[in-house]
Amino acid sequence: MSTRTVGSRVQRREDPRLVRGDGRYLDDLGHEALAASFVRSPHANAGIVDIDVTGAIDVDGVVAVWTWEDLQETGTAADPLPMLIPHPSIQHPVTGYALARDAVHHVGQPIVMIVATDRYVAEDAAQRVRVEYDVRPAVVGVAAARAAERLVHEEAPGNVGAYYEQHLGDAAGQIAAAPHVLELDLDIERSACMPMEGKGILARWDAEEGRLKVHASTQTSTGLRAALAAKLGLPLSSVDVVAPDVGGGFGVKINHPWPEDVAVAAAAMRLQAQVKWVEDRREHFISSAHERQQLQHVRVGFDDDGQILGMEVQLWHDHGAFLPYGVIVPLNTATHIPGPYRMRNFSVTYTSLYTNTVIVTPYRGAGRPQAAYLMERTVDAVARSLGKDRAQVRSINFIQPEEFPWDLGMVLQDGRMGIYDSGDFPTSLDKLKALVGWDDFEAYREQARAEGRRVGIGMACYVEGTGAGPYEGGHIEIETNGRVNVSTGLTTQGQGHQTVFAQIVADELGVKVEDVHVTTGDTRRMSYSVGTWGSRGAVMSGNALLLTARKVKERALQIAADASRPTPTTWRSSTGSCRSRARPTRRSRSPWSRCWPTRCGMPSTRPRGRPPSSGARRTRASRRSPTRSTPGWRRATSSPRCARPSPTACTPPSSRPTRTPRTSPSCATAWCTTAARCSTR
Fold first, then answer.
1. For residue 301, with 0-12 CB atoms within 10 Å meaning exposed, 13-18 middle and 19 or more buried, which class applies?
2. Given pLDDT bands bounded at 50, 70 and 90, which one contains residue 180?
């Protein structure tokens, strides 16, 4: 191939449409749909004594008013929501309901759903619902949760949701023997998750086909599909979830299903209509998810040079009123504390606690910022106590280049031991110091002070685990006109997937980037995916699409070789076409798009023994082996009608010759290259 685009400056494929205002976000869809609104709790902790909905029912335009009891008639929608990621440390798991059952546990928890002809009517009706509460004292903040004078849930003694510990070496012994010991108490504030576009769902039930079609502003369309199928008692194959343009996610939209997702989808099935809900900014603030809040205690022992000899850490994490997404946040904090530093004697424990506040899920770092804050504050404290330069103390504690690969000695969030394969942290620090003028900063500070200005400088070093598995998939189709269709299960919230994945496929196939069209987040095109989070898009889906493109190219070269009799190794791909190595000026009949027959009567360029297929492949990239596909996911996408691996499959049984012909002029079936399926002409 003559040019490569990966690593080159190219115009982003998605930007012109979005800049013109032609994006299709969730609220751009379903203008004729019924609208949902929710009555939410104004109290952080209260029992529900009575709900009076008679005032809402009388509002003109109201179609339905649902409480928890109404969900009981729709599969298992009335059951508690699932816990998505179990972990051995979780001792007392509690999840909420789509609509509150007997009590509310945080401000903003949904209690009643109103479905009406438009959102304005639904919200007016919601204001007429009367809920009688038995208000109770709330547990707010980590300190109150640790004190456990009041419980958020009776089934969670001490307000403890999870407890976990990991130990490396003899931290306590090394600290006791260290020349210097420091203790620090640190506090991380709670913060809110605020993408520009809030959550939302548009659900439509097709009674004739028995299918539920959902559009959702989500980071995991396949996960939402599975959750809705389970909660609504539907076969997985009867649910389609599509993520349109999504105005930001940053982690908050990885949680699924949200209570509103289940309630709205259940209403669509029951009413056999389109039902839509898009949260407003206030709803997002009080009912989506928050992040961050932890209390941290550090005990560290070190020598006269600042070398850390032993370190003990205790974390108390606030996960809010429920635990739907497991303990990814505190677990990431615990395992990312060592960062780039040589820790041979280290101990960490975390206690994840219930409070009467909005749930906490991964958002913008998912526990890693808390770890970096803890470790860097500790290193600064060590340097300050010894009167040493902060950069010097960091250098002393760095893992050295010759020590790689470095066994972290800790089990990470995916259940595997953490290993750093390579790095040169001292060189990185030297470059950073030169870049910001670290050694000359004191002179600059004095100059600023003389001018009446106060300036400071800080430094932080960290290692972040990204690109997590366990898998992603890729699917590629080549149409007869040369258009290349690429599908992956990842969703997109502005990462530029349409450009990046098009570059990868275009380079491998030797076609123009403009000829590659990428679809993300549509379960009709790719049924299984893990989702978009943790900087894993290019690592996982990028590798899956690279492997898929290689298989398509391999098939095309085989077909081209079979058409002209030489072996496949005598053919190569170049600028989107098949070319003979022996006769480089000669191409196959046409570019990629016609390396396969498109009409009856054309020579069968398909290699013998292969099914009539465009060569499209569905491939998983496994985190265990990112350079090869996972067995069992390498399959052609031919339909069952193409089951016979012979051109005679296109010939009526009564007229099939005993010898495979090179042409089939009377064939009534052509091999359609758009999706590698047979279609009658």
1. buried
2. very high
